[in-house]
Design goal:
Structural Genomics Hypothetical 15.5 Kd Protein In mrcA-pckA Intergenic Region, Chain A, alpha+beta, globular, 2 domains, 10 helices, 5-stranded antiparallel sheet, Ribosomal Protein S4 Delta 41, Chain A, domain 1
Length: 212
């Protein structure tokens, strides 16, 4: 399964905004973006001082890239999600973000079982999670309302999850999810709405990018 394996801090610098790809480190002064917020590359620092009006295409591309990088999705899969969003009632941009939020690795991250979506993806791939009692190791699995996610009983004895239990609750869990920190499990109460998705991306720009 394809995924980005390069330095993630360069992605934040390229987008000119924090994408919080390294979890808790992004909230501290140790975050590299705090010291180098200009684009990466030989001429990145000089480019940051140039004042030039961005074209509509540039704004649309950057919105698409930000969303894709936040959720850790490659281009081909992102296009498939857009097609799914177009086939549903409502605004395509909002539907797209809702589909991305329903990814299993994102839900694991939202529940606080991982510091980042990349770490959540690894936990899922290693078979530590179940959905409705069945072992699921597909990060792109789309959860539905009333689905129950839980750490497998065999995995709860691992050092990581024993330490994780003490950290649960420090990050706010979205209203569309509920967390049982004792059981290391969560329930999908409903599908998220756009107001419940705290992603600073203009989804309409993404739709316009693919509508060219």
């Amino acid at each position: 399964m394809a995924r980005y394996t390069g330095p993630v801090c360069k992605l934040c610098r390229r987008e000119g905004a924090k994408l919080y790809l390294k979890g808790e480190k992004c909230y501290t002064e140790k975050c590299p973006f705090e010291k180098r917020s200009y684009p990466p590359g030989q001429h990145g620092k000089q480019a940051s001082f140039r004042r030039r009006r961005s074209s509509d295409y540039t704004l649309q591309l950057r919105a698409k890239q930000q969303a894709r990088r936040i959720y850790g999705v490659m281009e081909r899969q992102f296009r498939r999600y857009l097609q799914m969003a177009e086939g549903r009632e409502g605004l395509t941009g909002e539907n797209l973000l809702i589909v991305l939020e329903r990814r299993l690795d994102n839900v694991v991250y939202r529940l606080g079982l991982a510091d980042s979506r990349a770490q959540a993806r690894q936990l899922v791939q290693h078979g530590h999670l179940t959905v409705n009692g069945r072992k699921t190791n597909i990060p792109s699995y789309l959860v539905r309302a009333e689905d129950v996610l839980a750490v497998r009983p065999e995995s709860r004895r691992a050092t990581y999850f024993r330490q994780r239990r003490d950290l649960l609750g420090q990050r706010e869990v979205p209203a569309w999810l509920s967390l049982n920190d004792e059981e290391l499990s969560g329930r999908v109460l409903s599908l998220p709405t756009r107001q419940e998705i705290d992603i600073p991306v203009d989804e309409q720009m993404i739709v316009e990018f693919y509508s060219r």
